[in-house]
Design brief:
- Helix content is 54%, strand content 10%.
- The radius of gyration is 34 Å and the shape is elongated.
- By secondary structure, it is an alpha/beta fold.
- It has a domain of 195 residues: ABC transporter transmembrane region fold.
- Strands 2-1-4-5 form a four-stranded antiparallel sheet, with helices on one face.
């Protein structure tokens, strides 16, 4: 079973804008455009001479709209760019409030926050001014339409043309509403141009190449695979995407069953890439990875990832219960889960929590600040593995000596033998002893 936290490709805000905002915006845009068209048609029917004013008024309206759209688009961009630092600074200030007060830097952070707000207002006030500029000109066009409708009606009555008072009243009532409709058309057009970027992003993501199939019907691994957990990299090379340099090049590695392997290296050496390759989050360019002599590239992703378990380097619990985090699929009995917790040295701790296995945990484990998330993931690996490789991937830079001793004792304890083979990627592991001390 694979536990990996990856960024969501299509943000929820983009989907929300497509499903809700754009649909509502288009509805209002078409409704106001139709209302304006009906108004012009009714006035033209009552006083046909009004048709001569439609073209020049339309050209004037189009020019004003285009000019405003260009200005408003840039002002909205400046407003968005200058607003993000405000939220970032505020969030950072809340996270380090104790340190800020300890060093008596509250005044400096307050002034910096005010400066960021002022920078944002520099883009906000021109936007308000642009709205007033648009309103004045649209009011002028609306006043021209009302004046023309009333003036032509008066001229028609004075010249003896047949036009009833009801028709004149209908023209005037519609003409008085055209200013609002014209204003909303411009604003909804700006809204459409602003939110249509979400459609472009979703289309871009939808065209990205997808992963390999989850299940290949004609090539499924045996039910007992992997029985021994032997892993071998055969002339393996890979890159994160097409066009980039190879992150792993011609790797030849043979890990026998029941071996505990630690991969130690500096940042960027390729430790995490080895693990990602085993789960086929990045596909091989050349070579292959075999688990118990089975080439992992020949089977489906679901068959592969269900048989493996990984402990992420940033251990985080999901919102729910202890049971949900240990057994997401709901296939293990209570006895099995308690046995797992006992092996992970967590049984006594869970017994002290309200509810036992049904104890509530907030997202990230916030319900219990001192809950050992990393150790619970060891239990998760035990519960998900049945003779499969367990790959604890924890990146430790500089940890305290007591914790290192605790980690070494647990990693070497027979109770923590979660699977035939375990594989760890570390920047620094002082508890590890090389096979040949003279070659350290």
């Amino acid at each position: 079973m694979l536990i990996v936290l990856i960024p969501v490709l299509c943000p929820g805000s983009d989907i929300y804008k497509i499903d809700e905002v754009l649909a509502r915006t288009f509805n209002m845009l078409f409704a106001n455009a139709a209302r304006s068209g009906y108004t012009l048609i009714i006035i033209s029917v009552g006083t046909p001479v009004f048709v001569a004013l439609i073209i020049p008024l339309a050209l004037m309206y189009w020019y004003i709209q285009r000019y405003y759209l260009r200005t408003s688009r840039e002002l909205k961009r400046l407003d968005s760019v200058s607003r993000s630092p405000i939220y970032t600074h505020f969030q950072e200030s809340l996270g380090g409030i104790s340190t800020i007060r300890a060093y008596r830097q509250s005044q400096r952070f307050q002034l910096e926050n005010e400066w960021r707000v002022d920078s944002n207002l520099k883009a906000y006030f021109p936007s308000v001014s642009a709205n007033r500029w648009l309103a004045i000109r649209l009011e002028f066009i609306g006043a021209v339409v009302i004046l023309a409708a009333a003036g032509f009606a008066v001229v028609a009555v004075a010249t003896g043309q047949k036009i009833g008072p009801g028709m004149v009243g209908l023209e005037m009532s519609y003409a008085l509403q055209i200013v609002t409709s014209l204003n909303w058309i411009v604003r909804q057009t700006v809204e459409v141009e602003t939110n249509i970027v979400s459609v472009e992003r979703v289309l871009e993501y939808s065209r990205l190449p997808s992963e390999a199939p989850e299940i290949i019907p004609g090539n499924r691994p045996p039910v007992t695979w992997p029985r021994h957990g032997a892993v071998s990299f055969n002339n393996f090379s890979t890159r994160y995407r097409e066009g980039l340099d190879l992150v792993l090049k011609n790797i030849n590695l043979d890990i026998k069953s029941h071996e505990k392997i630690g991969v130690v290296g500096r940042t960027g050496a390729g430790k995490s890439s080895l693990t990602l390759s085993l789960f086929r989050l990045i596909e091989p360019v050349t070579g292959s990875i075999n688990v118990d002599t089975l080439n992992t590239s020949t089977i489906g992703l679901l068959d592969l990832r269900r048989r493996l378990a990984i402990i992420p380097q940033d251990a985080a619990l999901f919102e729910g219960t202890i049971r949900d985090n240990l057994d997401p699929g709901g296939v293990r009995s209570d006895d099995e889960l308690w046995s797992v917790l006992a092996h992970a040295r967590l049984k006594d701790h869970v017994l002290t929590m309200d509810g036992g296995l049904e104890a509530k945990i907030n997202e990230g484990g916030e319900s219990n600040k001192y809950f050992p998330c990393q150790t619970l993931f060891l239990g998760f690996g035990k519960s998900m593995s049945s003779g499969v490789p367990v790959l604890p991937m924890s990146v430790v830079v500089q940890v305290s000596a007591p914790f290192q001793k605790w980690q070494c004792w647990h990693s070497n304890s027979s109770h923590m033998d979660l699977a035939p083979t375990s594989f760890s990627a570390e920047r620094e592991m002082s508890c590890m002893k090389p096979r040949h001390p003279s070659r350290r």
